[in-house]
Amino acid sequence: MTVKSTAQTSTLFSSRLLQSIRVMSVCLGVAVLSGCAQDGSGKGIRSSSDWRNSADPIGAFAAGPQYVAGLGLIDHPLANQALNQLGIRYKWGGKSPETGFDCSGLIVYSAQRSLGLKLPPRADDIAKFGDTVSKKDLQVGDLVFFNTLGTRYSHVGVYLGQDKFVHSPTRGSVVRIEDMKQRYWTARYTGARRLDPTLLASR
């Protein structure tokens, strides 16, 4: 009688343990899906040491450090937010992942989400913000500008290091990483700016 009772107890315990594991798995799955939905990039939520200093902590939290092949770990909130948009289609005048991005739309969206900065919608106006940076002093997160339409600051991207930058190029393409050493970009490079959220907030 004792053996039978022990066996029944063991079976009941195993059944309840299995049920608890299933419930926990479902909850974990829901949490993961919720994280992806909140991020809006399909890549989930990542942590960042910068979020506490951001005017938009949720946006910075969603744009945590990312590893990029050939570049290593990118740990700058603006660069990471722009990288979160890789693969989003180009859309002239687009300002969100849902509509698509043009070059300045990607920068405006990423700066707002990661740094809490409200930048103007045109690349040539964005070029008036921040501090001028020489090409040899470029750092991850700097804005890089190009003359692609006959005006000095008609195109903009975010520098990632090692002569790479992320941008939304042109109609029919998507947000992608480009090499500044390519002849096309070398010939059209016009300068860089470094955004400082603390200084820009007072403007």
Briefly summarize what is shown.
With 203 residues, this protein is an alpha+beta fold. The protein contains seven helices and ten strands.
Tell me what you see in this structure.
By secondary structure, this protein is of the alpha+beta class. Helix content is 38%, strand content 19%. It is built from 7 helices and 10 strands. The strands form 3 sheets. It has a 6-stranded antiparallel beta sheet with strand order 5-10-6-7-8-9. α3 packs across α4. The chain is globular, with a radius of gyration of 23 Å. The model is unreliable at 1-61 (pLDDT under 50).
Record keyword descriptors for this entry.
single chain, two-stranded antiparallel sheet, about 200 residues, alpha+beta, 7 helices
Secondary-structure topology with pairs:
Elements: H1 2-39, H2 57-62, E1 66-68, E2 72-74, H3 77-83, E3 95-96, E4 100-101, H4 103-115, H5 123-126, E5 131-133, E6 143-146, E7 155-161, E8 164-167, E9 176-179, H6 183-188, E10 189-194, H7 197-200
Antiparallel strand pairs: 1-2, 3-4, 5-10, 6-7, 6-10, 7-8, 8-9
